[in-house]
Amino acid sequence: MPRETLVRVASAAGRARDYFLSQFTPGVGFIVDARDLCCYYKAPMMLLAGGRRKEADALLNVIVTKFMQEEGDFKSSVVLKSIKPEYSEFWIYTNGWILRAANQLRKREMLEAGLAYTDRYRQVETGGFLTHRIDSQDGVTDVLTTAHFGLFHLEAGREDIARQAGGYLCRVISKQPDLTDGLYIRIN
């Protein structure tokens, strides 16, 4: 990529980060009508990528207050994961982004509670991670959730789990009938 393009992309990313920060009040959250988990879950990692650790930490504190449930899950309310149906479909996807930021900021209490919850989604025998809410008991795993949590566990120093996730991904790729025609992402 040409240097000029890289400079423009970095500048645009900085402006986006600064806009989000202008809409955020520590201890309160975003000042716009942002009451759903979907408005928050990736923002701490965006701030960390932009070198704003203090602000990412403040945002994680808001996420704990607004969205962390007693069992360690993150949901918009006791009965609703998110208004976005894809986050109810891929149940722990949002959790992974939040836990990655908590790990980078060494927020141990938050991390331990979140891991106690998401570890229940790991299939030890396959290395995959369950797609749907655990009480569905359908046994479906997928490459997106597994890759996401494999990366998280690698970053968190849980190399054994990361390797198992990598093995799962390799097995799924090897079972594809024709990768030129698409990728099947789920297994049951």
Helix-strand blueprint:
Layout: H1 3-22, E1 24-25, E2 29-30, H2 43-49, H3 53-67, H4 85-89, H5 93-104, H6 108-118, E3 141-142, H7 143-155, H8 159-174, E4 186-187
Antiparallel strand pairs: 1-2, 3-4
Helix pairs in contact: 2-3, 5-6, 5-7, 7-8
Counting DSSP H or I runs of 4 or more residues, the number of helices is 8
Strand runs, count: 4
Query: How much of the polypeptide forms β-strand, as a percent range?
Result: under 5%
Measure the end-to-end span.
40 Å
Radius of gyration: 18 Å
Structural class: mainly alpha
Order the strands across the largest sheet as they lie in space: 1-2
Low-confidence stretches: none
Oligomerization status of the protein chains: single chain
Shape: globular
Model description:
The strands form two sheets. This protein has a two-stranded antiparallel sheet. The N and C termini lie far apart (40 Å). The longest helix is centred in the first third of the chain and has 20 residues, at 3-22. It has helices spanning 3-22, 43-49, 53-67, 85-89, 93-104, 108-118, 143-155, 159-174; strands at 24-25, 29-30, 141-142, 186-187. It is mainly alpha-helical and 188 residues long.
